[in-house]
Amino acid sequence: MPKVAKVIVDVPSRETDRPFDYLISESMRGWIDVGSRVAVPFGRRTVQGFVISLSDHSELSLSRMKPIQELLDHLPPLPPDLVDLAEWMSHEYACSTISALQVMIPAALKGKAERYIRYAEPKQDTDVAEDEPDWYSDSLLQLDEEKQIIDYVKASGPVTVAHLDQRYPGQSVIIKQLLKQGILIESQSIKDRMKIKTVKTVVAAVHGEEAEQAMASFNAQSKRQKEILAFLLEVEVPIGMQELLSTLGATAGTVKKLAEKGFAIIEDVEVFRDPYKDRRFKASKALSLTPEQQAAYDRICETVDHQAYGVFLLHGITGSGKTEVYLQTIERCMQQGRQSIVLVPEISLTPQMVERFKGRFGDKVAVLHSRLSAGERYDEWRRIREGQVMVAVGARSAVFAPFPKLGLIVMDEEHETSYKQEETPKYHARRVAVKRAMQHDAVVILGSATPSLESYHAAKSQTNESFAPILLEMRERPSGSQLPKVEIVDMREELKEGNRSMFSRGLHQAILDRMERKEQAVLFLNRRGYATFVMCRTCGYVAGCPNCDISLTYHQKSNNMRCHYCGYSEVAPSVCPECGSEHIRYFGTGTQRVEGELAKLFPGIRVIRMDVDTTSEKGSHEKLLQAFRDKKADVLLGTQMVAKGLDFPDVTLVGVIAADSSLNFPDFRAAEKTFQLLTQVAGRAGRHLLPGEVFIQSYTPDHYSIIHASHHDYLSFIREELKHRRNLSYPPYCRLILVTLSHENLQLVVRMAENFTSGLRGRAQQRGWFGGLDRFTSDAFDILGPIASPIPKIKNRYRFQCIVKYRGDLDAIDLVREITNETLEQLRDGLLQISIDVDPAMMM
Ligand code: ADP
Ligand code: ZN
Ligand code: ZN
User: Fold this and answer.
1) In CATH, what is the architecture of 735-838?
2) Lowest-pLDDT range of 177-181, 527-531, 749-753, 768-772
3) Which of 138, 351, 412, 780 is least enclosed by beta carbons within 10 angstroms?
């Protein structure tokens, strides 16, 4: 059996981002495996680590190697495929392996080192040098207080310092003395943040003849014990201690006495916390598929049945029944004994969504939700790890669900940016899903009414071997209901005609109608409206960058506008450069303001506001939606949260207060995001019998993203948008790496950012990488910047960024990492930070 374990330690630094060799003690050898979590000595500390491989050899001599201190779980928490995946992520996202491993396990297993005091066993070994003092046998030398403490620790096993302090107050001097003498020793151990939940159970330990003898052995004093044993013999199976005590009116002491005699066994049995245990889910059966659904399902199942790798892009309009296709494919996998992961954006992980999976597959479904308590989340995770469930539904990180036989990964609303993690490791769940599917010969379904340009382009061009989804389309709704009629309202006209309110006259009237008809409305306000841009309310002019085709961001303090891609800046105008109007100002509205306006303009209107403020509490999201479903309100007003996955039969009106706020976000994906959002929100209206109506208010009603969204015309939008991306060389025509440098000292960070960029430029030139982006050759490379980050200072650290664009087989990530390390070496003050974001979702 292998003697050496290669361990990735939980020490977040560049120098420690490699495996370290540890000796596996004899007794651990059978237990330790790839993926095991261990406590190891590291320097003077004890840290947690993960075994990534086992070996018989090491470059270190066996005598110099330290042994693994502790094995933290009997079953390795990570299966080998996830350990491989972590190493892949470390390369693909230029992150440390430990950060990738950590994101795969629930928070409960992120152990924390704790200090213990234990008794040092005196050496019994007579082979050891005779002159070694046998201090404890000479107990006359010990003070009474010392003896007390020693005896206590000896009996209780390792105790924390705090515990000892509490038990022997004011005796810290003595404890310290004992530590100095080496009679007590201090050690560290890794403690899980969360314990497995257990209940005490009792079961009879005697049977047949033995039981009869036992029953005969009781006397008058032990009558109660006899009763209990009789009861246990009758029920046969283990019974909860609490239940036993309350049924018989007995005390725990009596049961314990019974156990001491060897007649009963008291055991801690682990239980799973089920966050959905009190919920009833409406059971649902497989629906008979429409021809479109059937065609998609058949094509996917072809691959599923071959147990082969495959990626499908299911492009289906809102309400086309994509979820039913997911459900039936999951069932198919289940019949083959293979498990499925369903990924949904966090904000659409609503009870409605959960209900559809729980309703179909009952307790075969685990739900991984950020709102679960750490304990609940941990238990759901264990049910997955132990193969007790067949489906895991969850947000981004559920892509790491450690299923033993993964057959399918569904990614609903695949275009959502929340699939990209903004913190290290900055992975995208779509890429990880595809990689996992390759490892397992599994299938990925990417579903959306508005697929991301990346996925759609990959499906159409089929040029990327590892990511070339097969496109499946669904254009109709099973219900036969039509997509709602969408009206674009030109808010400039409204102002011209004297309407200064945030509601156009059309939307105003439509809201009044719904109140009268007792139907409901959803009003949508873009959260991205936080970013402020400068706009003329008379003509709709928006100040944009001359070089980058994106809007400038307004900075109130300096009263200027800046481009966050190229660094261009100018003073904010006081009159519109286009029409001369003075109604030019910076923009940004909040949901609270809209709520106030509604109350003022529509007396008696009942509004439910749903935004980060009103949904921060656990369960509040569900409660608000339930109240709306119960028709306790006329209007549901909210941010992104109201755009996704909601299905209410009485919603016949959708109003978008200001479509422009996402359009003018300084991001090359602004048009795409706007189109997706408008399509999503519009899809909330008229999903059932009643026809729907949609108002989109805008100051730039001619923008192609708004016009195509109003016609539900994905293809026209995508054609136009791809043209723009191609002209400006942005994804999907290249990949991006965003590098952000930060430091407390402005001059230093500017210098280092320049060093970094020129270092990268030089090395790329040496390799002959430069150019080609505009010529659409297969290999291409360019660097933009350095420029100040959109948020130039965070927590007193100045931030500068540069953007790498590349295409083809160039190992740009590796090179960026290399130059990053070199740049950090140049300064070595420990204060310079360089963050690398591969395929960034946001350019902040
Ligand atoms: P999507 O996820 O594509 O937006 P949904 O899965 O929410 O669409 O489906 C919309 C509605 O159509 C749901 O109420 C669903 O129950 C219903 N539905 C889906 N498939 C069928 C079918 N084959 N027959 C009847 N109703 C269906
Ligand atoms: Zn103007
Ligand atoms: Zn610019």
Assistant:
1) 2-Layer Sandwich (3.30)
2) 527-531
3) 138
The reply, when asked if residue 539 is annotated as ligand binding, is yes
Q: Is 576 annotated as a binding residue?
A: yes
Task: Give the DSSP per-residue string, 307-318.
Answer: T--EEEEEEE-T
Contact 670, 549 (CB under 8 A): no
Within 8 A by CB and 6+ apart from 131, the residues are none
pLDDT at 158: 77
Q: What percent of the chain has pLDDT over 70?
A: 90
Q: Is 333 annotated as a binding residue?
A: no
* Structure token digits, residue 40: 């190891």
Helix (H, G, I), strand (E, B) or coil at 458: helix
Residue ranges per structural domain of the chain? 4-111, 115-191, 198-270, 291-474, 485-528+590-727, 735-838
Q: How far is the CA of 739 from the centre of ligand 3 (A)?
A: 17
Q: 95 among the known binding-site residues? A: no
Task: Tell me phi and psi for residue 786, to 5 degrees.
Answer: -80, 150
- Average pLDDT over the chain, rounded to an integer: 86
- Asked if residue 401 has pLDDT above 60, the reply is yes
Most confident residue range from 57-66, 70-79, 671-680: 671-680
Q: Is the CB of 789 under 6 A from ligand 1?
A: no
Distance from residue 548's CA to the centre of ligand 3 (Å): 4
**Does the pLDDT at position 8 exceed 90?**
yes
Q: How far is the CA of 360 from the centre of ligand 1 (A)?
A: 14
Ligand 2 center–CA 494 separation, angstroms: 14
**Alpha-carbon distances of 786 from 550, 567, 829, rounded to whole Å:** 18, 9, 21
Distance CA 744, CA 7 (A): 34
One-letter identity of residue 502: M
With residues binned 3-state (H G I as helix, E B as strand, rest as coil), the percentages for the chain, rounded to 5, are 35, 25, 40
Domain topology for 4-111: GIY-YIG endonuclease (3.40.1440)
Please check the confidence at residue 792 and state whether its pLDDT lies above 80. Answer: no
Question: What pLDDT score was predicted for residue 139?
Answer: 46
Q: Which atom in ligand 1 lies closest to the alpha carbon of residue 683?
A: 4
What separation in angstroms does the CA of 309 have from each of 399, 454, 463, 721? 16, 20, 17, 30
Smallest Cα–Cα separation from 667: which of 783, 570, 774, 549? 549
Nearest CA to ligand 1 atom 23: 289
What pLDDT is stored for residue 132 in this prediction?
Answer: 40
Q: What is the pLDDT of residues 174-194, one digit of tens each?
A: 887 888 777 887 776 666 655
